[in-house]
């Protein structure tokens, strides 16, 4: 009986250890919490974006409280942040092509009506290097801010741009299914 108890304790410890490192994916660690103004947000989940089996970035989604319901997250008028931590160099054209494809796949009507905002967004993007972050933060009343490699580049007012942007990862056709599941904490 004692051996069984020790074995169960060992197995439980092995299962519990990965839970301690929930903020690490593909060697990228993100903090469990972030403070945006007066709002504390928790890491909802993380996922790895791959393309043709090549690692591109690790994404982490932050919310005021955890949720695994993509539709609720998209529609909720609550603060949210998505951090893309790049694990390879990506050119400006690769970024804009990827966003264009995702907007068309997930929110084609919004992509048409929000074209001026999308054009402003694309104008602010630059190439990004391995190890740099591209961060999107939506704050109700303030809009969506875009920060690239630590420099704030743009803020787009209103919730419509935020919903379209976060649909890239939470919409029906994310860059890859494992990425969406990861940021939803599934």
Topology, element by element:
Elements: H1 2-20, E1 24-25, E2 28-29, E3 33-36, E4 39-51, E5 54-63, H2 70-75, E6 80-86, H3 92-106, H4 108-113, H5 115-124, E7 133-139, E8 143-148, E9 151-156, H6 159-170, H7 177-183
Antiparallel strand pairs: 1-2, 3-4, 4-5, 5-6, 6-7, 7-8, 8-9
Helix pairs in contact: 3-6
Give a quick rundown of the structure.
This protein is of the alpha+beta class and 186 residues long.
Task: Explain what this protein looks like in three dimensions.
This protein is α+β, with helices and mostly antiparallel strands. It has a single domain (2-183), classed as Chalcone isomerase (3-Layer(bba) Sandwich). Helix content is 40%, strand content 31%. The protein has seven helices and nine strands. The chain has helices spanning 2-20, 70-75, 92-106, 108-113, 115-124, 159-170, 177-183, and strands at 24-25, 28-29, 33-36, 39-51, 54-63, 80-86, 133-139, 143-148, 151-156. A seven-stranded antiparallel β-sheet has the order 3-4-5-6-7-8-9. Strands 1-2 form a two-stranded antiparallel sheet. Strand 1 and strand 2 form a beta hairpin. The chain starts with a helix and ends with a helix.
Question: Key features?
Answer:
186 residues; alpha+beta; Chalcone isomerase; two-stranded antiparallel sheet; 9 strands; globular; disordered N terminus
CATH class: Alpha Beta
The CATH architecture can be given as 3-Layer(bba) Sandwich
CATH-assigned fold name: Chalcone isomerase
Uncertain spans, ≥5 residues at pLDDT below 50? 1-22
Rg over C-alpha atoms, rounded to the nearest angstrom? 18 Å
Strand arrangement in the largest pleated sheet: 3-4-5-6-7-8-9
């Amino acid at each position: 009986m004692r051996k069984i108890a020790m074995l169960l304790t060992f197995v439980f410890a092995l299962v519990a250890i990965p839970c301690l490192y929930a903020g690490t994916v593909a060697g990228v660690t993100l903090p469990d919490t972030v403070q945006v103004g007066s709002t504390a947000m928790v890491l909802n989940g993380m996922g790895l974006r791959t393309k043709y089996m090549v690692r591109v970035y690790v994404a982490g989604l932050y919310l005021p409280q955890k949720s695994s319901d993509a539709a609720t997250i998209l529609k909720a008028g609550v603060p949210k942040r998505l951090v893309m931590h790049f694990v390879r160099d990506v050119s400006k054209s690769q970024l804009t092509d990827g966003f264009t494809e995702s907007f068309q796949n997930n929110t084609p009507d919004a992509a048409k009506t929000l074209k001026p905002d999308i054009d402003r967004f694309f104008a602010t993007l630059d190439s990004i290097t391995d190890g740099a972050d591209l961060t999107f933060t939506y704050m109700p009343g303030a809009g969506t801010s875009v920060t690239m490699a630590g420099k704030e580049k743009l803020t787009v007012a209103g919730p419509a741009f935020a919903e379209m942007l976060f649909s890239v990862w939470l919409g029906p056709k994310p860059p890859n299914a494992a990425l969406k599941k990861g940021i939803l904490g599934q």
